[in-house]
UniProtKB/TrEMBL annotation, chain A:
Family recorded in the similarity comment: Belongs to the ABC transporter superfamily.
Pfam families the record matches: ABC_tran
Organism expressing this protein natively: Paucilactobacillus oligofermentans DSM 15707 = LMG 22743
Record key words, sorted: ATP-binding, Nucleotide-binding, Transport
Protein's name according to its UniProt entry: ABC transporter domain-containing protein
Taxonomic placement: Bacteria, Bacillati, Bacillota, Bacilli, Lactobacillales
Automatic annotation (TrEMBL), chain B:
Protein's UniProt keywords contain Transcription regulation: no
The UniProt record lists the keyword Transmembrane: yes
Chief place where the protein resides: membrane
Topology versus the membrane: Multi-pass membrane protein
MF (Gene Ontology): ABC-type transporter activity
Protein name listed in UniProt: ABC-2 type transporter transmembrane domain-containing protein
Transmembrane segments: 16-37, 104-128, 140-163, 175-193, 260-281
Record's subcellular location: Membrane
Species, as recorded: Paucilactobacillus oligofermentans DSM 15707 = LMG 22743
Length: 294, 289
């Protein structure tokens, strides 16, 4: 039995399938990323996974516990895209109010979270007057308050500065290590996916690819060698491969560094400069969906 | 559920503006009474002795009904706000179920309704005792408290049913304005029910408001009426009660007990309607952002 799984998840709105037969298997402590353009069905999938939306077809369970039961809710934490806490209450009042709604409240852990997320200074401030970054740190604290085993992050970093993003990931990675926290993330930030153990790529409500990031890169994102020639690039024809010529530049897909070095060696007298670009998550995305992710 | 009730109460009393706005209906009826309503009603009743001792508690009965209507509507507004701004989605991830969350809105609203009626009652009793030498009797306290609880329950359920159909804050503020204005007419404070055209009376009698006001007035006016009408025939007293809404004419004037039964009846019917509507609307309340 998997730690968390979703089988044949499908959601129809007015006969239109928004999510089509999504299957998901997550082991304890894994960091799973959902990658997809806007409108791919990521948020709808997450809403079903956390029990806020009933799937048209499909089953979801966490360690055998059915979605939407009290036990299930106790084991999950969610950071929504929007900040949903009470704007008129202070940070402390918000956190205490939510903590009172769970069984697993441990005041020592609560204090640790506040210190880790550097919330001490803003505890008495109204949630509604906080900056976006401060609010997000409070949202993360709220999601972790009852020590969930599975944390859902629905595009948590949108609109945040790099410092806040780093802070959030530093805290989450620490909890992952110490508590074996499992994370399911949907994001637009490709660098966040780089740390994921397993990636699902969604488009038009379907999983179009899934694998570890390394394997996805091997399959879909090849390294690129970009060569800038001194004169006209008459040498292009010499290289028999799928290449792309733009002005005096030549973009080559290479399978290994050795291959790139050999090409560069053959053409060394004609080259003005060159650039080696490793395959990225964005390439995977472009290859699979034909769209830029952002 | 206690945690949720505490949250709702804290949100309600944290915003002074919200609380005072919810009392606007009551404040307006009180001020209008002092400015001109008392005089204009009194001018038609010049033959009734000790009229002030009757009109002051009469106004109190109506104003308490308005308070019950508007403060419960305002408090239940939190339910709509939570739906609109997504807080409900966050609450649904906690231990309490959807029905517990709804229950918490209801219970905190009933509490708020009782507290606000208590405040209004205390203020008006003090004012009229000081200004008009109104006699405040201690044996009012218990029956009035019971009626306050009953009114709070009735209007919480009625407003719960009405607000089930409202999903955003814009419509909520329109709803509150309408309720605030209508409450004074339905509780027959701006104008005694006897002066209202029959068709409008018929409409008003389909709501719990006139029975609620009548119930308050029957308790508060028991002694003043006995004093002022001790020399009058029962028919004269009945006519007066009917025209002032101290008893509503349904094949004879309603009594304290029939008013209580009617209010309980309204509550039961409304609860059934809420259960039906909640089941239908449950799926639609989780607004996507």
């Amino acid at each position: 039995m998997h730690f968390f799984e979703a089988i044949h998840l499908t959601k129809k709105f007015n006969d239109k399938e928004i999510v089509k037969n999504v299957n998901l298997h997550v082991e304890k402590g894994q960091f799973i990323a959902f990658l997809g353009p806007n409108g791919a069905g990521k948020s709808t999938t997450v809403e079903m996974l956390i029990g806020l939306l009933t799937p048209t077809i499909g089953e979801i369970s966490l360690e055998g516990i059915k979605v939407n039961s009290e036990k299930f809710r106790n084991k999950i934490g969610v950071v929504f895209q929007d900040s949903l806490l009470d704007r008129d209450l202070t940070v402390m009042e918000n956190l205490k109010t939510r903590a009172n709604l769970y069984q697993n409240f441990d005041s020592e852990y609560f204090n640790q979270i506040i210190i880790k997320l550097e919330l001490e200074a803003i505890l008495k401030q109204q949630y509604g007057v906080l900056s976006g970054g401060q609010r997000r740190r409070v949202d993360i604290a709220r999601a972790l308050i009852h020590q969930p085993e599975l944390l859902f992050l629905d595009e948590p970093s949108t609109g945040l500065d790099i410092q806040t993003r780093n802070k959030i990931w530093q805290v989450l990675n620490e909890i992952r290590k110490t508590k074996q926290l499992t994370i399911i993330l949907t994001t637009h930030y490709l660098e966040e996916v780089e740390y994921a153990d397993y990636v699902y790529v969604l488009d038009h409500g379907e999983i179009i690819a899934e694998n570890t990031l390394d394997n996805l890169k091997k399959e879909y994102a090849h390294d690129q060698l970009i060569i800038h020639f001194k004169g006209s690039s008459k040498f292009c024809d010499l290289i028999e491969r799928n290449n792309q010529q733009i002005g005096q530049d030549l973009k080559l897909i290479t399978n290994s560094n050795i291959e790139a070095i050999n090409i560069l060696d053959d053409l060394k007298n004609e080259i003005s400069s060159f650039e080696m670009r490793p395959g990225s998550v964005n390439d995977i995305f472009l290859e699979l969906t034909g769209k830029e992710i952002r | 559920m206690v945690g949720l009730i505490k949250r709702n109460l804290r949100l309600q009393f944290n915003s002074f503006g919200g609380v005072s706005l919810s009392l606007m209906g009551a404040i307006i009826s009180f001020v209008l009474y002092l400015v001109f309503l008392r005089q204009s009603i009194a001018s038609g009743l010049s033959r009734v002795p000790d009229l002030k001792q009757i009109l002051d508690p009469w106004l109190m009965g109506g104003t308490l009904t308005i308070t019950a209507i508007t403060t419960t509507a305002n408090s239940l507004g939190q339910m709509v706000k939570d739906r609109d701004n997504g807080a409900l989605r966050d609450l649904l991830l906690t231990r309490p179920s959807y029905y517990h969350i709804q229950g918490a809105y209801v219970l905190s609203t009933i509490l708020i309704g009782i507290v606000m009626q208590g405040l209004v009652m205390t203020f008006m009793s003090l004012y009229f005792s000081l200004m008009d030498a109104m006699t405040f009797r201690l044996d009012w306290v218990l029956p009035i408290l019971i009626v306050m609880i009953l009114s709070s329950v009735v209007w919480t359920t009625v407003n719960m049913l009405l607000l089930s159909f409202i999903n955003n804050v814009d419509s909520l503020s329109k709803f509150n304005s309408i309720i605030g204005t209508a409450a004074g007419f339905f509780a027959c404070v701006y104008m005694p029910i006897g002066l209202i055209p029959t068709s409008a009376q018929w409409l008003i009698e389909f709501t719990p408001a006139p029975y609620n006001a009548a119930l308050f007035r029957q308790i508060l006016l028991k002694d003043p009426l006995n004093n002022s009408f001790k020399n009058a025939t029962p028919a004269v007293l009945n006519d007066f009660k009917e025209s002032m809404g101290i008893g509503i004419n349904i094949n004879g004037l309603t009594t304290v007990y029939s008013n209580i039964l009617l209010l309980v009846g309204f509550t039961m019917i409304t609860i059934i309607a809420i259960l039906i509507v909640t089941n239908i609307l449950k799926r639609g309340v989780l607004k996507r952002h």
